[in-house]
Specification:
Layout (H helix, E strand, L loop, with lengths): L6 E6 L6 H11 L5 E7 L3 E3 L8 E3 L1 E2 L8 E4 L5 H4 L3 H10 L5 E5 L3 H6 L7 E2 L15 E2 L4 E4 L2 E4 L4 H13 L2 H10 L18 H8 L4 H8 L3
Parallel strand pairs: 1-2, 1-6, 2-5, 6-7, 7-11, 8-9
Antiparallel strand pairs: 3-4, 10-11
Helix pairs in contact: 1-5, 5-6
Length: about 220
């Protein structure tokens, strides 16, 4: 990178996205000393994430951004709903050749898939929708994050923080990644080991798919 050059990082946003999919990587990547950050949407202005979330402001329109070094794509919709995000998918398809890295979180991987960016690649997404990537010619991988060439995909929601720290170690240095991790005091200590299907007990899985847990899981577990 040339001395004084800026790294253009664009965070895609849209109504119905999962807020932490964007905010987690945002907290990490905006600490890069050379980062220039834009939050883009089909139209600038307020964006309403899913029904549990607070609104955010998109500072730029998609049409105003024709190149970027890194693009971060949050999830939220189930795979069939991604097909409704035609402006966002077309923008990703056009922008991809200009990008050094494209980084999706959770079901954001399906926006990349709809744009034709995952064909023949290894990728991950939220565990409940992982196998759906096969329909797009991708190879689903049950990992916290997966790097394949210029594409970085993260698993569900909180995995975006892990993947952003990994991206920092690749694009900047391991030292900077560790320093940012310390600054945000990212030292997970969950009260129970229940953060993946392989660790969760059968009663937890049954709760999420049953009527009592339906309200909790309707957005993540509802299939296309």
């Amino acid at each position: 990178m040339n001395a004084g050059a800026k790294t253009e990082i664009v965070f895609l946003s849209f109504d119905g996205m999962t807020l932490l999919d964007l905010v987690g990587p945002f907290e990490v990547l905006t600490m890069w000393p050379d980062a220039t950050v834009r939050v883009a949407a089909a139209r600038p202005g307020p964006i309403m994430p899913d029904s549990r979330s607070m609104p955010i402001i998109a500072t730029h329109s998609l049409a105003s951004i024709t190149a970027a070094d890194i693009v971060v794509v949050p999830g939220g919709p189930i795979p069939s709903e991604v097909r409704q995000l035609t402006e966002e998918v077309e923008w990703l398809r056009r922008l991809a050749p200009t990008c050094k890295r494209i980084f999706s979180v959770c079901t954001g991987a399906f926006l990349l898939a709809e744009a034709g960016l995952l064909e023949g690649r290894r990728a991950t997404t939220h565990w409940a929708t992982l196998e759906g990537l096969r329909a797009f010619g991708a190879t689903p991988v049950r990992e916290r994050w997966v790097y394949d060439g210029d594409i970085l995909t993260a698993a569900g929601v909180s995995a975006g923080i892990d993947a952003a720290l990994h991206l920092t170690s690749v694009e900047r240095s391991e030292l900077m990644a560790r320093a940012i991790q310390l600054l945000i005091e990212y030292d997970p200590a969950p009260p129970a080991e229940s953060g993946s299907p392989g660790k969760a007990s059968q009663d937890v899985l049954a709760f999420l798919t049953g009527p009592e847990g339906g309200r909790l899981s309707e957005r993540k577990l509802r299939q296309p």
